[in-house]
Amino acid sequence: MRDADADTHGTGPGRADSARRDAHGTIVPVVPRIDLCGVGKHYGGGEAGVTALEDVDLRVEGSAFVVVLGPSGCGKTTLLNLVGALDIPTAGTVRLGGADLTRSSQRERREIRRHTVSFVFQSFNLFPALTARENVRFGADVAGRPRAREVTEEVLDGVGLAPRGDHFPHQLSGGEQQRVAIARALATGNPILLADEPTGELDFHTGVQILVLLEAQTAAGRTVVVVTHNREIARIADRVVELSSGRIVTDGPPPGGRVPVGDLRW
Amino acid sequence: MVNGGGRRGAVLGETPGGDGHAATPGNGNSGRGAAPGSGRRGAASGDDGGPVRGGAGSAGLWLRWSWRDLRARLLLVVALAAVIGEGTGLYAGLTSTSRWRYESYDASFAGLNVHDLRISVDAGATVPRGRLRDVVAALPDPAAVDASAERLMFPTEIEASRPGHKEVLVRGEVVGVDLTARPLVDGISVAAGRALTTADRGRPVGVLDHGFAQANDLPATGTVRISGDREIGYVGEGQSPEYFVLPGEQPGLITQAGFGVLYTSLETAQNLAGEPGAVNDLVLTARPGTDVAALQRQLTAAVAERLPGVSTTITNRDDIASRQIMYDSIESNQALWNALALLVLVGAMFAAFNLVGRVVDAQRREIGIGMALGVPSRMLALRPLLLGLQIGILGVLAGLATGMIITAAMGAMLRDVWPLPDWRTGFQVGVFARAAAVGLLLPLVAAVHPVWRAVRVEPVRAIHASAISGSTRARARPRRRRRGFPLPGGSLARMPARNLARAPRRMLLTALGIAAAITAQVVFTGQLDTFTRTTDAAETELTSTSPDRLRVTLPSVQPVTSPTVTAVTGSPAVRGSDATLALPTRLLGPPGSAPHEPIDTLTYILDVDNRIWSPSITEGSATGGLLLAAKAAHDLGVSVGGTVLLRHPRRAGDGYQTVDTPLRVAGIHSFPVRSVAFLDAADAGSFGLAGLTNVLTVLPAPGYDQLDAMRTLAAVPGVGSVVPATGSIEEIRALLRTFVGILRIAEIAVLLLALLIAYNAMSIAMDERRREQATMLAFGLAPRRVLALAVAESALIGLLGTVIGLVAGYWTLRWTVEVLLADTLPDLGIRAVLSVPTLLTTLLLGVFAVAVAPLLSARRVRRMDVPSTLRVIE
Question: Where does the chain cross the membrane (chain B) (predicted)?
Fold first, then answer.
C-alpha cells in the first residue's frame, strides 16, 4: 500500500479533498481515510429481507488501488455505494476522513460526493446529450473547480481523448466512453475514485487500457476502489478485499503478489 | 422512461413462469420442435410466420403484461387519456351545439305553430277586424289555409323600471293576438307566470317577452308602462316565434335587453292603441302539402282585390328576421367551431403522437430482447399496441366525461343567452361516436410508427439502446459526424439546450403539441379580444361627443315642423336637437360592376357639421358623398372616391318611390357596423327629402338626466321610441354574446389541455432522464439543481412551443376572424386583434406552465434511490 503522505486527514464532510503539493511542487490530492466498522446493510424486513452486507470492517488509508472481489450478489456494489455516500448502512459506521456518513445529513453526503469521491460506472452513464468534452467538464463544474476549462482539457488529454472531445457518447466506442467516464471522475479532482465493474462491458484489450488508466491514478495520489467479479483484475491491486455473502472473507495483497497490467489475461 | 430493470425484470421475470414459456421462442421451439434457426430468421426478417405459433396461446401473457404496464404507468396513461379526452370532448361539445340548435329551433318554431304567410298593413295604418280574414276566405282554395289569426301590433316605449333595480326604458312593441283563434298561429309559450286566456280579452294585462324579461332581470309578473303613460300588468313571461331573437335598431344587429315585447289580447291592444276594432296584421299556416309560394301569390292577388288602396306587405316564413338570424348562423358558426375543434384535436394529436410514441420507444430495448429471442414481430408489436389501446379506451372515457361536462356548460350557456321554449341539448350519439372513434384510433395510430421503427431495428442495436429513443437514429448511424454546436457556459448551463438538440424530432413534437394548444388558446382569447375591441371601438365612436344624447324615433317621416317634432325640440327636457333622416336603403355596389350581394343599410341623412354628434372619418372626407363603414366598402369592393349605387326612397308627390342613385363614396366612418351609412344633408338633394325627419338626436337639458329626458320625451304624443344613442353597443354585444359564452368555456378547456400536454411531456421527459438524474445526484449535484436543469429544459420547449403557438395563433385568428366570422357576422366589421395583455399572458402562461411541469416530479427526484436507480438501469 502506498502512503499518501496526507497532511489534512480528518476534514469534515464536504471539502475534504484539500490538495497539497509534494516535494516537486506537484499538486497531490489529500486522500481521506476510508473506515468501515461493523457495517451491515439489510434490505426489507422479515423473511423477505435480504442481507447485502454483514459486519464488514474495512480501513483504507492513503493512496491505493483496492479491488473488491466477489461473485454477483455478494454485496460489492452495496459496499461501493456506502463508501461513495450514496447509501447509509443499517448497522455499523462508515467514516470518510473525519466524517461519519452514518450520521451525516443528505446535504453533507452530497458534499462528500461533490468533493471527495467520484464514480465510474459499468455502463458509463455518460450524459448522451453532452459531448465528451462537456461530460468531462461536468465533473469539474459539479466539483466547483476553478479553471474548469483548463482542467477539462488537461484531463481529456490525459485519457488520450482530446481529439474526440467534440463527439457525443454514441459516436464513441465502449472503451472511449469508459475513458470519458474516468476523465469525468478525474475532472472532479476528488481523491477517491470508485469504479463499479469498469471493464464489465469492454473487451479484454479495451479493459486493459481502462485498468492502466485507473492504476495510474494511484500514482497521482488517489485511492481507487474497483469492484469486480474478475479475479484476474485483482492481480494488479495493492489490496484485494474478497466478499462472499456480504462478508469479507479475505483482505490483503493479491495472492502471488502484484503483477503489472500487461500480465493480465482473461 | 426507465429502461431498465422494471421492464427487463418483467421480461426475465415473466419468461420462466407460466405462459412465459410459450412466449419465448426458445420454449416455442423446443415445445414444438421447430428449428432454432427459424426463430432467429423470423425475428431478423420480421417474418411473422416464425415458429411461435404458440403466440396465440400466450395471449394471456401479453394481456397480463400489458395490464402490468398499465398499472405501472397508470398516472401517465390516465394523463395521456385526459389529453385525448380533452381534445375529443371539446370537439364533441362544440359540434353538439349545431345539432342542438337545429333540433331546438325546429321544435320551438313548430311547437308554436309558426306562420307560413303574413299580411302586414304598412305605415301604421289599420283595417277593421275581419277584413284580413275576408281576404283569406276569398282565396281560390280557402281550405289550403289551416289556420289564421288577425293581430294588431304597434311600436311603443316600454318602461319596466322598479325601485331598487336598474332602470329599464326601452323601445318595444305591443302585439295584440286573437285569443279566440284556434289553433293559434304564432302562439305564445309561457316560461313563467301564466298564459293569457280568453278571460283576459280587453283587460289591461299581458305577457312580457321572456328573453327581454330575463335580460333585464324582471320578475315573472309585474307591471310595465307603455307610451302614453299607460300602465299594464303582465301575468307571465312568454315567447313567440317572431321574437325568439329580438331585433336591434340597426339592420343585422340584435338585442337582448333593449327591446321589449308585450303580448296582449287583440282587444286590449286595440284599447291601448285607441283603435277599437282595428287590426293591421294577419298570420296564417298552410295545410300540410300546400305549395306555399303559390298560396302567397294567390294571397297577393286577393289582397289587391279585396283591400284596394291599402298598402300591405306579404311575407313568408323565410322572411321572419329572427328565424333568418337563428338558422343562418348555425352553419357558419359550425364552420368556426369545426376550425377551433380541429385545432384542439391537432393539439391532442401531436401530444398523443409524441407521448405515446415516447412510451413505446421506451420499450424498444425489451422489443430488441424479444427480437433476439426470436419472438415474431407481430407479437412484439402487440404489447405497445395494447398500451395504445388502453390509452385509447381511457381516452374515450375521458372524452365522454369531458364532452358531457362541456356540453352541459354549453347547454346552460345557450339556454341563458338564447332562451327558447324548447331547448334540446341532449346527448348527441353520432357526434360522440365520431369523437370516440378519433379518441380510440389516435393513440393506436400514434403507436404504430414507433412500433414499426422498433421492430425494424437490428436486435443487437435495440438491446444496446438506452432508454431514450432520441438517440436511436444517431445510433443507427454511429459514425455520423455530428458535433456539438458551440454553446456558452459550463456543462450544466449547456445541458438543457443539448438535451433538446439531441432529440429534435421529439422536441419538435412536444413543442408542436404545446404550440397547437397555445394556438387554440390564442384563437379563443384573441376572438374575445377582437370582440371587445370591436365593441370598444363602437363605444368610442358613439360617445366621442355628447355621450348622453338620445335618439328619438318617430313612427313615420315627418316635416321638421310637425307638431311631434316641435313638441320634442321644444320640450323643457331638451337642450339641443338635430333632425336626422334614417332611411332604409340598400347598397348595390359600384355601377356597372359584377353583381354584389346587396347590403341592407340604414342611411342617416344629417348635418355633419351639427354640434351634437357626427361620425368620425377614418378615410376621405365627411362631405361630398356617402360615408360607408369599412366593412361595407370592403364587401362592395369600393374605396373612397369610388361610386356605389344606393337604392333608396325618394319623394314623389305625396308618396315615395324607390330609386337607384349612384353616389360617390366620400369617406369611411369608424363605426364597425356595415349596415350604417351616413350622408350629409347637403349631399342628399336628389332624395327630395329636404325638410323631413324621422329621427331626432337630442341633448338632455340641464336638470334632466338621460332617463328623465327619455321618460319626458316618450310621453310626447307621436313619438315612437326614445333610446340612448349608445344603444347600438348593447346590440353589438348581444350579437357576440353566444360566441363569447362558448369561447369562454372552450378557453378553459384549451387551457387545461395545454397544461395536460405540458405535464405529460415533462413527466415522460423526467422519466427518461432518471438515469442521468441519478448520475448527477451520484456526483453530488443537489436535487434542486437537477430540477432546475429540467425546468430550464422545459422552459425552452415551452418558449419554443409558445412562440410557434403565438405566431400560428395570430394567423389562425386572422383567418377565423376575417374569413369565418365575416360569414358568421356579416354586418360587423371585425379586425383580428391580439391584445398585449393576452400576448403577454399567453407567453407567460405557456412558458411558465411548461417550465414548472417538472416540479411536479420534485418529490421523486428528491427521494430518488440513487443506487437502486443506477443499478436498476444497468
Answer: 74-94, 335-356, 385-411, 431-452, 507-524, 742-765, 786-812, 832-856
Cell of B799: 418558449
| A129, A137, A171 ranked by CB distance to B490: nearest | A137
Which of B490, B778, B782 is nearest residue A86 as measured by Cβ atoms? B778
The interface pTM score, or ipTM, of the predicted complex is 0.82
For chains A and B, what is the number of CB pairs under 8 angstroms? 100
Domain ranges in chain B are 1-111+327-476, 115-319, 508-543+728-874, 545-725
Identity of the amino acid at B698: V
- The answer to whether the CB of B640 falls within 8 A of the CB of B620 is yes
Smallest Cα distance from A195 to chain B, Å: 12
- Upper half-sphere CA count for residue B578 (Cβ side, 13 Å): 22
Q: Is B780 on the interface with A (CB under 8 A)?
A: yes
**Grid coordinates standing for B535?**
365593441
Average pLDDT estimate for A50-65: 91
* Contact state of A114 with B781 under an 8 Å Cβ cutoff: yes
User: Angle A194-A122-B496 (CA atoms, 0-180°, nearest 5)?
Assistant: 90
Tell whether the torsion through CA atoms of A68, A72, A75 and A76 is positive or negative.
positive
Task: Give residue A60's Cα distance to chain centre.
Answer: 12
List, in order, residues 6 or more apart from B858 with CB less than 8 Å away.
B783, B787
Q: Which residues of A touch B772 (CB under 8 A)?
A: 125, 127-128
Taking a contact as any Cβ pair under 8 Å apart, which residues of chain B between 460 and 519 contact chain A?
466, 468, 471, 474-475, 478-480, 482-484, 490-492, 494-495, 498-499, 501-502
**Hey, are the CB atoms on B779 and A112 less than 8 Å from each other?**
no
Rounded average pLDDT per 10-residue block, chain B, 874 residues = 34 33 34 34 36 50 77 77 82 84 93 94 86 92 92 90 84 92 90 93 95 91 88 94 83 78 95 92 94 94 89 91 84 77 77 75 76 76 82 88 86 84 88 87 84 76 50 42 65 87 82 83 86 84 84 85 92 92 88 80 88 88 91 91 90 79 92 89 83 91 89 84 79 74 77 77 79 91 92 91 92 87 79 88 85 86 85 48
Residue B768 contacts A where some CB pair is shorter than 8 Å? no
